[in-house]
Write a structure and sequence with these properties.
seven-stranded mixed β-sheet; 53% helix
Length: 494
């Protein structure tokens, strides 16, 4: 169907399988993906020009049902109606939901496919539930290309809504080994929560890779072209992933205007849109240790504070001294960085999955962690070879205390630790920041330590705040020392 004027659109009632509201790049590509897979797709945008542009350029890709009025858009959908909302998160999404709520009926489905904070999704789902309308918070990863060619899809919501949506979503998702990279995550905010953690892991993964590059350049002394070759070689290792591919491409590019490495003409300030910060904040709220994710967020914040960085550089705080000698030379150091990067990557993913498991238990979501690893194997930004090992690990034990205890990862971390320690030590001695490497190593060491200095912290808390403590020889007792009284006697409070 083509048209020269958006006002000519007159959709047939009940003729579309699913609707897409919002035709920016992501929404348009998702609509095209659905149409290419044989689904009749109703399309609407607040600005009719975008609807017209989609029809003029892509009408031959499948069956689209365009509309210029929200009421016509909704009427064109078969019952129970399903609408995917692809507009800016926040107030715009809220306005569209309110608009659709007035037009839909009990049993119909609204899908928010944006990067929405999961608590907002929970609130909206509860509000719409009273009207009999299903609300689905759906994570979509893969960017513009993934939306068109096959993303990783993480829908939450009711099981009933997934029965309606699932076949369509699975058909348009990426596929690995014949399996769709789409699965029902759980009720209310589960889908958006898992997508948030996916993005938090993505932050950690990118920061670790950036630190590896920095170490190879500033400690090993390799030039950018050589580092690009190193990353290309890692494609044939346990590090094989989309982000390693991207890194090799970025490092291999030469700026045509200056002839310099492309990475050297990019301002060293990394932006962020909030999902990494949400992940770190949520980890703090839930009491889950996620230092790699948090350090990745902090590293972006530090990079984006040029005035502070300039002032500290001007304070002449450099005390690193001469670069240390590398045992075995640059090649051996690169091999150590590879092992340290893999160990850190395992730690970061373990933190992310721990966060999902904790939130799942708190919210009654019953998230299948193995299924989450499976649907991340294709389409999404963090797709990687070692996700197959995570799938197998959760298949052998669906509820491990930590991913680090799975035999395949316990062995890998054990093998990585000597090189990992060497890399972190050399980074510190060279004055090269490696916060995600160091915090990931500290995370592993904290968990493997037979005893932590937390005992001292709890003693301090009891001293100044009467917060009590437990004794190692009385697991059920709660104690307090009368610090302000003579003799400082110990009392058992319960």
């Amino acid at each position: 169907m083509t048209t020269s004027d958006a006002t000519d659109f007159a959709p047939a009632p009940g003729s579309a399988d699913i609707g897409v509201y919002g035709l920016g790049v992501m929404g348009a590509n998702l609509a095209r993906n659905l149409a290419r897979h044989g689904h009749s797709v109703a399309v609407f945008n607040r600005t009719p020009a975008r609807t017209r542009r989609l029809m003029e350029r892509h009408a031959d890709e499948g069956h689209f049902v365009p509309a210029t009025r929200p009421a016509d858009f909704v009427a064109s959908l078969r019952r129970p109606r399903a609408v995917i909302v692809m507009v800016q998160a926040g107030a715009a999404t809220e306005a569209v939901i309110d608009q659709l709520r007035a037009l839909l009926e009990p049993g119909d489905i609204i899908v928010d496919a944006g990067n929405t904070f999961y608590r907002d999704t929970q609130r909206r789902e509860a509000a719409l539930r009273g009207s009999g309308i299903h609300f689905v918070g759906m994570g979509v990863s893969g960017g513009e290309e993934g939306a068109l060619l096959g993303p990783s899809i993480m829908p939450g919501g009711t099981a009933e809504s997934y029965r309606r949506l699932g076949p369509m979503l699975e058909s348009i998702s990426a596929h690995v080994d014949g399996e769709p990279c789409c699965a029902h995550v759980g009720p209310d905010g589960a889908g958006h929560f898992v997508k948030m953690v996916h993005n938090g892991i993505e932050y950690a993964d990118m920061q670790l890779i950036a630190e590896a590059y920095d170490l190879l350049r500033r400690v090993a002394g390799l030039d950018v072209a050589r580092i690009a070759e190193v990353f290309r070689s890692w494609r044939d290792s346990e590090l094989d992933s989309y982000l390693i591919d991207v890194t090799a491409e970025v490092l291999g590019r030469t700026d045509p205007a200056t002839g310099r490495p492309f990475v050297d003409v990019v301002v060293d300030e990394a932006g962020q849109k909030g999902t990494g910060a949400w992940t770190a904040q949520t980890a703090l709220e839930l009491g889950v240790a996620a230092p790699a994710i948090a350090e990745a967020v902090f590293a972006r914040a530090a990079s984006s504070a040029p005035a502070v960085r300039a002032a500290v550089r001007g304070a002449d705080l450099d005390g690193a001294g001469a670069p240390p000698a590398l045992p075995g030379g640059a090649g051996a150091f690169a091999a150590s960085v590879r092992r340290a990067l893999y160990g850190s990557k395992i730690a970061a993913y373990a933190q992310g999955f721990d966060l999902i498991a904790t939130a799942g238990a708190d919210n009654g979501w019953d998230v299948d962690l193995g299924a989450m690893a499976r649907i991340w194997r294709g389409g999404c930004i963090i797709r990687a070879r070692f996700l197959d090992d995570i799938v197998r690990a959760y298949g052998a034990d669906p509820a491990p205390v930590s991913l680090l205890t799975a035999p395949v990862f316990a062995s890998a971390v054990r093998d990585a630790l000597p090189a990992w320690r060497e890399v972190v030590a050399l980074a510190a001695r060279s004055g090269v920041p490696a916060p995600a490497f160091a915090s990931s190593l500290a995370y592993v060491d904290q968990l493997r330590a037979p005893r932590l200095p937390a005992a001292l912290i709890q003693g301090q808390r009891d001293f100044f705040g009467s917060h009590t403590y437990r004794r190692v020889d009385d697991a059920d007792g709660v104690y307090h020392v009368l610090w302000a009284r003579e003799g400082r006697a110990e009392e058992k409070w319960s």
